Amino acid sequence: MNSRLRALAFLPLLLACATAASAGNTLAVLTADSGAYLEAFSAFQAAYGSEVPYFNISQETPVLPPGTETVVAFGGKAANYSYPQGVSVVYCMAPGIFVKKPPPVGKAVKISLIPEFEVIFTKLKQIQPELKRLRVFWMTPSFAAFYEPVRTIGERLGIEVTPVKVSSQEEMPTLLRDALGSADAFWLPPDPLLVTPENLMIMREFSWANAIPFYGSTKGMTKEGAAASVGVSFKDMGTAAAGAALQLNEGKVMPGLFFPADVELTLNASAAKKCRLELTPEILRQANYLFP
Questions:
Q1: What fold, for 117-231+264-291?
Q2: Has domain 3-112+234-258 been given CATH number 3.10.50.30?
Q3: pTM value?
Q4: How many whole angstroms separate alpha carbon 234 and alpha carbon 133?
Q5: In angstroms, rounded to a whole number, what is the distance separating the alpha carbons of residues 236 and 257?
Q6: Are 73 and 45 in contact (CB under 8 A)?
């Protein structure tokens, strides 16, 4: 049964449950119904508490049944789709994308790909207690909005955070060399323009050669050589999306950026050793994944 038929099959049930929390007013749109998208959607559906019809936008055009109030989009293609006026959109797994919906034509709530910055920097300080100077590299224009917040939060935690705008891929070696003697560690956000196999290799080689820890924001970055990553799992994104959708359906005021409550900590023992980091028993206990 294709997604359109699935959606229509659920419509009578949704209308019958119009007063329930799920209310038949929520629909999901997936960039693809496999891999990470399906993992996040499964967690979303479990947390939402009832069956939610969905469309695979890579195969068909979403058709929203009458009464649809909220669309939960998984992935950039689904997030960027033009939904009808008045429909609120909760979207996740869409790095670099910020959907704008001026009132009164529905709300747009982005599920963050990372925990709150205070959580990230606090965790990095636990891993590296002597951390006082942190370079944050970014390339996607939307990250500019976080320039001052990361500096302010870092200052509160005793860390001088210096955001560095990367204009081109070729700049990375020079920017890293410029940081020698003025940075105790580097951090990469989930920036789709900056996080490339080549840049990850450059960061890893520079980090290991100079014993300056490189921290990431996804398990994949840790696997590629970051000493640690403080991020959010696909399951946590789906769970957070369910919470945001339920609150929107209840008429609650939601922020434009919604942070998942749980944190995924991944560690790389080899990278930590290269950077002369001692992973304490407490940090090891907190880790969700440990790469050898």
A1: Rossmann fold (3.40.50)
A2: no
A3: 0.84
A4: 30
A5: 15
A6: no
Question: At residue 281, what is the residue type?
Answer: P
265 phi and psi angles, rounded to 5 deg: -105, 125
Place of tokens 């960061």: 203
> What does the alpha-carbon distance between residue 112 and residue 218 come to, in Å, rounded to a whole number?
12
For 93-141, what is each residue's pLDDT tens digit?
998 888 877 665 679 999 999 999 999 999 999 999 999 999 999 998 8
**In the block, which residue shows the tokens 């001692």?**
278
Beta strand segments in the chain, E: 26-30, 54-56, 70-74, 88-92, 108-111, 133-138, 160-165, 185-187, 214-216, 228-231, 257-258, 264-268, 289-291
9: tokens are 């099959």
The domain locations on the chain are 3-112+234-258, 117-231+264-291
DSSP 145: G
How remote is the C-alpha of 14 from its chain's centroid? 30
- Distance of alpha carbon 160 from alpha carbon 210, whole angstroms: 20
